[in-house]
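pasting for ref
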Amino acid sequence: MTAPSHDLTLISFYVYLVLFFLVERFLTRSTLGTSGRGDRDPLTPLFFVIPAIGIFTWMFLMHRALPPHPTWLQYGAGLVLGLGGMAMRIAGKRTLGRMFTVRVQIQEDHRIVDTGLYARVRHPLYTGFILEWMAPPLLLGSPVGFLLLTLPLAIVILLRIPREEELLIEAFGDDYRAYMARTKRLIPGIW
């Protein structure tokens, strides 16, 4: 057998999506935050819109002209990256606790978190999110999935990070600058 079967890839893909939503809903409890505190990032709604549009467009194309055809290497990489991304998001959100919100804002009694994953990377939740959304195209062996789903989400994240860091510098000044100097943005030891 040179590649996962069509049925295995489709079942894995749908199980992965269900698992993703269960993790986001029940294991990490995403909160929007207090609307009165504002949202320093107008791109926040895109975290919900891009995956929905990307998935439905991709599914339409996949059904019509681009059936799944991953290699075992792609399939395995998709499982490892996706589950690793979920684990990062669970650990990161639990480390942040009540300070995590979907909105870019400072919470009451906010502090710099520099423990757990945050001791090495400033934005492990974004790293995990990118990994989570790299998984579906790999599970299905679909470059189109990267173009319609992973790449747009990565761009939104890369546009959002400077806004978030600007807010944290405003709130914590030199303490946050010192934290930035000793950690990487998304990839430990690299960037």
